Amino acid sequence: MISGDQIEGGLASPRPLRVVPVTKAAFEPFGWLVETGDSGRDANNGTARRHDIHAHAAADVRPGSSLVTSIFAAREQPPTSAIAMLERHVNSVQLIMPLDGAGHIVIVSHSKPDGTPDLSTLAAFAFSAAQGMIYRRGLWHHPIMATGADARFLVQSWQDGSAADCEILAIEATTLACDA
Q1: What is the pTM of this model?
Q2: Backbone region of residue 102 per phi and psi (left: phi > 0; alpha: psi in -120 to 50; beta: other values)
């Protein structure tokens, strides 16, 4: 495992990986589904709807880290793309929320006891442009994959600038299979 934008090695993975519509129950083992819909409460004297996002206690934040908020501009990718890497943020949860676009695919995997991805748990979910997620700390996942159109995403995680902020690992190329 390495940090940054470099990829090494290659773990074998199952093929093809079926992309299924996301549900709160199906995604729960990997993190939290974030969507607005009918949830929330009135705010700003009734001129807005407030949707709070609660994922972890402040005690779960690594000492010496800061909350980093970024905007990622992701290029559209075909929903049948092949993936060849996973990453994880071993010391932080990570919020990813679309700001626009047509939808995105989220690919996740649990870890084996040795910390490498357990590719038998590799799962892919289709998200709408109104749905985001919070990954559990240390969850292996593929980078943002916008589908249908280019998209921008708000991304937040706790970072201290060390190599542990983002670990990247190559996997055997795995093609996604989407239902029409």
Answers
A1: 0.84
A2: alpha
The mean predicted confidence, pLDDT, of the chain is: 86
| Burial per residue of 74-106, b for 16 or more beta-carbon CB atoms within 10 angstroms, e otherwise | bebbebebebebbbbbbbbbbbbbbeebebbbb
**Amino acid making up residue 57:** A
Q: Which two tokens stand for residue 126?
A: 């289709």
Burial of 11 (0-12, 13-18, 19+ CB in 10 A): middle
Let me know: does 138 contact 178? Beta carbons within 8 Å: no
Q: What is the pLDDT of residues 120-173, one digit of tens each?
A: 999 999 999 999 999 999 999 999 999 999 999 999 999 999 888 999 999 988
Which residue reads 């996942």 in tokens? 141
14: Cα within 13 Å, side-chain hemisphere: 13
Q: How large is the C-alpha radius of gyration of the chain? A: 16
29: tokens are: 């083992």
